[in-house]
Amino acid sequence: MLTLSQKQELVSALHEKFEQKKILVLVDYKGLNVTKINDLRSKLRQAGIEFKVVKNTLLIRAAEQTDVELLRQQFEGPSAVAMSYDDPVAPAKVLCEFAKDNDKLQIKAGVMDGSVLDADGIKRLSELPSREVLLATVLGTMNAVPTGLVRALNNLPERLVYALKAINDQKEAA
Question: Residue 53: which residues within 8 A CB-CB, separation 6 or more?
């Protein structure tokens, strides 16, 4: 049992984390045994995601004056939060993948950049490519533009020579 001061410290620490997070996903873990929860925690930790099981009353207090407060009505039953501070897609990917194999894990909702995401929104977010794949795509596109320009500029003199030769051949034929 936590003392009042310990609860206040926990609420204060959670409030700071809620302000710093890029995304927060709220899940219902009822029915998962300890082994499954530890497996989920391990997968989330490997992806750099913080996972907390906290009483709903403490979640409500910690969420005050943050965008997490938008989920206040969802704080019912057993609740846990998964937070990411850098990659907003990572928690959605890990949780949705884990929920495929463990139907007892229910994704309730999430909040990202002041917008509430329902369970379907979290699922769609999980289907996005990872940050590394998106960066590689952008870099590939940026690299392709100058390469194409160089090729086009290299072909211009060659085309000019062919055009002048065709004009010369037409004049000689006439």
Answer: 29, 78, 79, 80
Tokens 């969420």, residue located: 63
Task: List, as one string, the DSSP characters of 102-136.
Answer: -TT-EEEEEEETTEEEEHHHHHHHHTSPPHHHHHH
Residue 81: enclosing H or E segment and its boundaries?
Answer: strand 80-84
pLDDT at 118 over 80: yes
Give the amino acid at 134.
L
Rounded Cα gap, residues 91 and 99, in angstroms = 12
Q: Which residue has the tokens 């369970």?
A: 119
Q: What is the pLDDT of residue 131?
A: 72
In the DSSP assignment, the letter for residue 68 is G
Q: Name the amino acid, one letter, at 103.
A: D
Torsion (CA) 61, 67, 69, 75 in degrees, nearest 10: -100
Does residue 168 have a pLDDT over 90? no
Greater model confidence, 28 or 158:
28
Band of pLDDT at residue 157, cut at 50, 70 and 90:
confident
* Dihedral of alpha carbons 103, 85, 63, 112, sign: negative
Strand order of the β-sheet with 23-28 is 50-53, 80-84, 23-28, 106-112, 115-118
The pair of three-digit structure tokens given for residue 8, joined into one six-digit string? 């206040």
